[in-house]
Amino acid sequence: MLCKRVAVITLISLALGSAHAAEPAAAVARNDASGAAASAALPAPVTNPQFRIRPVDDAWRARLPRDADAATQAYMDRLPADVVARSNAYFEGGYWLQLWNFLLGLAISVVLLGGRRSARVRDWAQRVGRKAFLRDALYGGFFAVAGWLLSLPLTVYQGYVREHAYGMATQTFAPWFGEQLIGLAVNTVVAMLAVGGLYAVIRRSGERWWLWGTVAAVGFSVLGMLVAPVWIDPLFNTYKPVENGPVKSAVLAMAQADGVPADNVYEFDASRQTTRVSANVAGIFGSASVRLNDNLLRRTSLPEIRAVMGHELGHYVMNHIYKSIAEFALLFLAGFLFAQWAMARLLARWGERFGLHGVADVASLPLLAAVFALFMFVATPISNTLIRTQEIEADRFGLNLAREPLGEAEVDLKLTEYRKPDPGPIEEFIFFDHPSTRFRIHDAMRWREAMGTP
Ligand SMILES: [Zn+2]
After folding, report:
1. How far is the CA of 378 from the centre of ligand 1 (A)?
2. Distance, CA 373 to ligand 1 centroid (Å)?
3. 372 Cα–ligand 1 center, Å
4. Region 335-339: what's the mean pLDDT?
5. Does residue 72 sit within a domain?
6. Nearest to 4, CA basis, from 398, 295, 287, 392
7. How far, in Å, is the centroid of ligand 1 from the Cα of 394?
8. In a domain, 47, yes or no
9. What is the pLDDT of residues 169-194, one digit of tens each?
10. Residue 1: its pLDDT value, please?
11. Alpha carbon of residue 113 to chain centroid
12. 436 C-alpha vs ligand 1 centroid, how far in Å?
């Protein structure tokens, strides 16, 4: 589910030019090393040698304190100190990467604007494309490719070197880079359509470009949510129905209980790229499909899968996708208003020097992208909190539906592979788009204590 929302932001930031690789599809990524109830017939799982959880048995679970705080601590104590230290280092490094990505995006904008490069590309696109839409689309394609090239060193470090250093990547360089090229091709097409469309709207709406720009950006994001599961996701992974068995039956039973119109469950081969575990309910306007990755299938027990899928179905039942669209539409509106204010001043001061003919001139896209990226960077705690709030809701919905607090806690521990398990409250507010391990386990243990279940 998160990956769909990341896609919203990615599409917009792409349309506006912060041309960075999308986050690895870490939807409700969850990780496990314990159970095998669901995976007897499947190949051996790919695992991260740097990650482990102290195993326990039924006797341990029988002794688990009834008190939520004490039970939460008992689970947290199963994370070895070196595993916690590694997780903290990985996740906190991500804070800095957000900053470096933001600063790199600004630097790319400066490089493109400098020496009137952006204006010269616009003039070239005008000669080649002639028509305004084609000119702007060509410029958008240039922008996507230039951004990709200039950010390639950081992309290689963040997406390949660092993921391998932390034991989560499963690809060698050639296939990884091949996927980057596929991503570049997709991004370039998306950028051409998005930039062509966005500037057509901006040109026609005069002073109110910020309003219609928001409408166009939101509309384009919704289009992306429709298209991505069908046409884009299969470029990177193979999707196939889950075999008949306890997992499929359990997921479909929960879907049926809550009126989710799913008649099949799909798995995809995320182990091609990563050791991470994830699942999502993708699509919008009736195209919903329940999808879980092979790492989840192979490395978790049935109670854990039920807990995860209860969470995913919660996103669907609570209409989180539509609420997200409304919330992010407001955030984008604020971003475009800020952009309108900032662009007027920046263009008055620098426009002529860089050969830019106003906000409707596609050559000013790097400036718009920089301004919008600044807004979204500062608004990170807001966007994270909007998403995290829904994730907490989905956790609680999943507990009510699946009634598996121990399965939930077990899978929450596994999330520590790539998410800091026990942050401070301010840190969680600013940086976490999903609740932390401790927060989630405490929710599960509170449910267990109050409901008096095993
Ligand atoms: Zn979720």
Report:
1. 24
2. 25
3. 26
4. 96
5. no
6. 287
7. 6
8. no
9. 999 999 999 999 999 999 999 999 99
10. 37
11. 30
12. 13
Please answer whether residues 166 and 419 qualify as being in contact, where contact means their C-beta atoms are separated by less than 8 angstroms.
no
Ligand 1 centroid distance, CA of 318 (Å): 11
% of the chain beyond a pLDDT of 90:
77
Question: What is the number of structural domains in the chain?
Answer: 1
184 alpha carbon to ligand 1 midpoint, in Å?
27
DSSP conformational letter for 38: T
Out of 29-43, 211-225, 285-299, least confident range: 29-43
- Is the pTM for the entire model greater than 0.85? yes
Q: Structural domain of residue 139, as residue ranges? A: 2-39+81-451
Q: Answer for the pair 307, 407: CB distance below 8 angstroms, yes or no.
A: yes
d(CA 323, CA 312): 15
- Give the distance (Å) from ligand 1 centre to CA of residue 391: 5
pLDDT of residue 436: 97
Is 224 part of a structural domain of the chain? yes
| Residue in the block written with tokens 């616009």 | 122
Question: Ligand 1 mean position to 258 CA, how many Å?
Answer: 17
The torsion defined by the Cα of 292, 294, 295 and 296, in degrees rounded to 10, comes to: 40
Strands (E), 111-204: none
Q: Is residue 250 part of a domain?
A: yes
Q: How far does residue 312's CA lie from ligand 1's centre (Å)? A: 6
- Ligand 1 centroid–CA 395 distance in Å is 8
- Return the SS3 of 240: strand
Instruction: Specify the residue for token string 């341990």.
Output: 60
Nearest in space to 440 (alpha carbons), one of 403, 400, 383, 396: 396
- Residues 69 and 246: their CA atoms lie apart, in Å, by 33
